[in-house]
Amino acid sequence: MRRLLRVLSTSAPALLAAALCFHFAMTLGYLTPQNPLQLRFARLISGYMNPFFEQNWHLFAPDPITDTRLVMVACRLREPDGSTTETGWTDITTPYWESHLENRLGPATRLGRSVTGAARMIYTVDPTSLQMAKKLDQQRTRAQAGGGGAEASDAQVADMLRDEVKKEQEAVVQLGKSVLERAGSAHCDSLYGPSRTAAVRMRLAVLKFPRFSRRDLPDSKGELTYYDFDWAPHRPVAPLDATTEDRRETPVALQAAAAEER
Q: Does residue 84 come out as left (phi exceeding 0), alpha (psi in the -120 to 50 range) or beta?
């Protein structure tokens, strides 16, 4: 036992340094502009960084945030007679932020960031990817117009890189959908009990604030748009109350249900 503790104590600094180096390497690969090396390891980098380590640069962007985004869920429940019923929409993000305001050190902010981060992964297009895809399309058009030779080889390279960009974008969207479906499944289980939910449906509500010229109006007077997903099968996940630090507190999903009833 003592030998094991000695080995752990001597190897712990090296393991910690290796973990930190890996984390900062993944962060650097995630933040750098798109390049062939980043495309080569896109799935590894995105799988590690999203959704918990995703970076949000809105604070430093030239355009401030202009909308509020809420994620909602509807549940398709199994009834004792074998039929199914569909519930109404329940807001699953606002209770996270309310819980965060009550307990700054609780898990609510991490859960909330994972949900909203997943929504951004689906509906936010990377401008660098769009610009790169446009440049590749232009290069492919010029190469095809050349009629062969080196231009034809350039067209093949452009096609390969364009496919890699498309694969990366599709992988990010699929990861975002997977996270949202898991979050929706957990909330349906918390609201209506385990083993009752057959499918979940997610909705993203986007409320654009009134423009600066109408700044006298409240945010509720802005433009509200809904983006609905298709029904997805229920995914078994850990219950939400298992993530709370104090089991005596009301689960977040139940707070959402109470807010919806009001």
A: beta
Residues 6+ apart with CB under 8 A from 236: 185
Structure tokens at 210: 């009134």
Cα dist from 179 to 28, 64, 86, 119, whole Å: 23, 26, 21, 9
Amino acid at 184: G
The two most distant CA atoms of the chain are separated, in Å, by 73
pTM over 0.85: no
Whether residue 233 is preceded by a cis peptide bond, meaning omega within 30 degrees of 0, is no
Comparing CA positions, the residue from 197, 201, 179 lying closest to residue 188 is 197
- More confident position, 235 or 38: 235
Question: 223-228 and 90-91: which strand pairing?
Answer: unpaired
Q: How far apart are alpha carbons 18 and 50 in whole angstroms?
A: 20
List, for residues 138-165, the tens digit of each pLDDT value. 766 776 666 555 455 666 766 677 777 7
